Amino acid sequence: MATGRTERPAHRGRGIPEATVARLPLYLRALTALSERGVPTVSSEELAAAAGVNSAKLRKDLSYLGSYGTRGVGYDVEYLVYQISRELGLTQDWPVAIIGIGNLGHALANYGGFASRGFRVAALLDADRAVAGQRIAGMVVRHMDDLEQIVRDDGVSIGVITTPAPAAQGVADRLVAAGITSILNFAPTVLTVPEGVDVRKVDLSIELQILAFHEQRKSSTEPAPGPAPVPAAVTPAVSPAVAPAVTRPTASGGDLGGDLPEVMPA
Amino acid sequence: MATGRTERPAHRGRGIPEATVARLPLYLRALTALSERGVPTVSSEELAAAAGVNSAKLRKDLSYLGSYGTRGVGYDVEYLVYQISRELGLTQDWPVAIIGIGNLGHALANYGGFASRGFRVAALLDADRAVAGQRIAGMVVRHMDDLEQIVRDDGVSIGVITTPAPAAQGVADRLVAAGITSILNFAPTVLTVPEGVDVRKVDLSIELQILAFHEQRKSSTEPAPGPAPVPAAVTPAVSPAVAPAVTRPTASGGDLGGDLPEVMPA
DNA sequence: TCGGCTTTGTGCACACGTTCACAAGAGCCT
DNA sequence: AGGCTCTTGTGAACGTGTGCACAAAGCCGA
């Protein structure tokens, strides 16, 4: 394109907005599907629809990668798949280690979605010696003691934490110490890591809570358009006596060890 | 602002920013932990640290709920736990149905964290009659045929889809037809639902791809702390002549890396 | 060669989200 | 009572993200 402008839109090396990066995988998935159907080209409108976004947004997102489209025609599917894959770094191999082989770790180990994108489950680890040694998804679970060695030998670059919440920070510390700078955390805890280390979190219970919020809003707005019921307009923090009652909705026998239950996405 | 401040922030009925709603569960978790440790009050600074956010942001977030703090002191933990729980709708019971009892569905069914927040797994469903009938997590898996009836009888309000991607849309359609307006989708597909229905998506593969993007960037920027970021940025693609020609960068080894990532998800 | 049609790439305006910085309250000590 | 210290609540600046609308650019048919 080269608009001859002083500064090139070249966000190339740096500057691709986070929001855009988060959507690229979405476009890639849609493009891959098109590719398999043998579709040669797509317009921003079609691709946007397939990815569930606004077409203007899609065009702007793609423009950060470069001018890979043809006006009046659209985008070459294969070419775009390649460009996005490269931008996301999927053209290389990413050995992943899953730490914590409980319900979730077990499920992830068997999840096919990983291998299909350049991600390779290189190792499964667990602190429980009863678990270590078991064969899961064709791999032998290793013990946490070997973590550093495994990371080094297999060149693991991404760590997936699926341990119970209390153990997560410790595991993260060891991963970081071992040189890992990217962590996907499923444990319901806030991980503290040194600068330069990336942590992304997946939390099922948070997603459900957000849904509950909207669901509640929907049901309370639909029937009676009237304002909220909230009469507590005059209840200073002096009477916390009412509060406690809620903390435990379901009588799940003192579970709240601080979200101690299985890590699970939740 | 414009809103004549009669008595309260009045963001009550509507208007709590999405970004804030998404963080409330985080605060709630941190507060619950404090509560269990018997801590009576917290300052925005402490709570922010525990939740991993900026204190100013936390104060602003909480201010949308009302003025529940005490200047010079902080927030009453119990009281705040109650207020946030109520705002999120966690003071009521939310029956959840999990559709698709594969690895992930199985793991979720066994996850204990559900009950701790007002969510109750009311039913497990699967399209495979070999799966239906099995006992998982103390429940008998039902067949998809009974979906509508189960939703009605148990008052299910939230559906969790953990089926393979191809089946997701069909399941979503049935859930919506059955009256469900909140869906948590784990299948790697874009679900199309009528307005008024909320869909939240959790995609492990996307999270990994985002991590890969940053990881790649890190390794290519690390060596040179100075300016020059990515030298390997490939040709500026300024020459439009290149793009069209590369319609098939496949085997013929195009101008770039030469290796086409055979990426495809499940 | 020249319009006409299509679709990209992007300038611009607006909405949303984040952060700073500080006045206003609240409690405490003298 | 007066002043000091602490912390909230929020105005305002700033940064990021979104979406419209349109000029530029490629393709095609006459």
TrEMBL record, chains A, B:
This is Redox-sensing transcriptional repressor Rex. InterPro entries: CoA-bd (IPR003781), NAD(P)-bd_dom_sf (IPR036291), Rex_actinobacterial-type (IPR058236), Rex_DNA-bd_C_dom (IPR009718), Tscrpt_rep_Rex (IPR022876), WH-like_DNA-bd_sf (IPR036388), WH_DNA-bd_sf (IPR036390). Modulates transcription in response to changes in cellular NADH/NAD(+) redox state. HAMAP family: Rex. Residues 245-266 are annotated as: Disordered. Keywords: Cytoplasm, DNA-binding, NAD, Repressor, Transcription, Transcription regulation. NAD(+) binds at residues 100-105. Residues 89-190 form the CoA-binding domain. It comes from Yinghuangia aomiensis. It is found in: Cytoplasm. The keyword Chaperone does not apply. Belongs to the transcriptional regulatory Rex family. Residues 26-65 bind DNA. Homodimer. Gene3D superfamilies: NAD(P)-binding Rossmann-like Domain, Winged helix-like DNA-binding domain superfamily/Winged helix DNA-binding domain. Its main location: cytoplasm.
